[in-house]
Amino acid sequence: MGQITLTARIQLYLDDDQKELLNSTRKAYTDALNYVSDVVYNTHNLHENGLSRDMYPTLRERFGLKSQQSQSVIKRVLASYKTIQSQEQGWIRPSFKKDQYELVWDRDAAFYKGRLISVNTVRKRIKVPYSIKGYEQYFNNPKYKLGTAKLIIKHGKYYLHVPVTCNVEEPDLVKAQTVVGIDRGLRFIVTTYDSDGKCTFVNGRSITQKRRQYVRIRKRLQKKHTASARRRLKAIGSREGRWVADINHCISKRLVESYPAGTLFVFEDLSGIKEVTAKVKKKMRYTMCSWSYSDLEQKIIYKAQLKGSSIIKVDPHFTSQRCPICGFTDKGNRDKKKHIFICQSCGYRSNDDRIGAMNLCRMGSEWLPAQVPGTVAAGV
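The structure corresponding to this sequence follows.
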């Protein structure tokens, strides 16, 4: 049994008065966070009960927070300090710069009759219309547990980001009927090969072109050394991050949905990829190191787990140099410039990325009983 935590989004449709109420609540909440952070920094008091006893009256009277809001502020500050301590960064005061508001589900925020959601503010609870389009399954199923939501404002629109936790059963590898090897790279972001002999490629050419465009924009802005250029650089970075996350989401969704529940997905263990690729020429370093393979991997993993499929990671060495037919392994088998694999022993020829995926599929098949399909030679 394992746990998966996702983030569901609720869009709130507020009138002007309700926006003003939520904005003032965010301001009071953030001011209270910084006030408590100062107290903890000066007193070194990390005990929740004692801090709550000392701070609670001030948070209620000075900042106008309600009972649950006051407790949330104290918990949030202590969590920040304990995170810093766990990372052994010394006694550092966390600062809360952007206005924020965290709402405990079913207390500060809850569904209300008539397709409304009730949200707590410093003055009163407000009832507002909402939309959970695309996230209905998380709110209508008792197996999902809702956590503390965060109020997010983007482009003038108000959202509640709600963490959703659910338990998932560990799939039985013995029952796996399909094995899929997943090779990741630059020319093809993803190449897959399954135990039925089906191979798919996700071309990375257009992605590479857009990333180079971001590089050119960054270089141009970095030369200006102005405040507006720095702001623009920050915005560009956020935009590129959202773009990468969206592409990884689309790739992972399409991949997982292409196979039935119980599928075994096989990855290379790329935990050391940045250390390896950082050795390449400086002009190629961004291209080699900046794509978020970890984000793509995590998205495939949680989507597969939700569907009842399994994930394993295997040793990545020689997966593009080993012949999947005869097993002969040699550097000379692979021509990196032409992206061709030609076995020097048996003469088998194919795309080098496809060879990597084939070998991963074979390695995954070795985890399964002999009667389960998985011999890649049958589907070459």
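Residues 10-102 form one domain.
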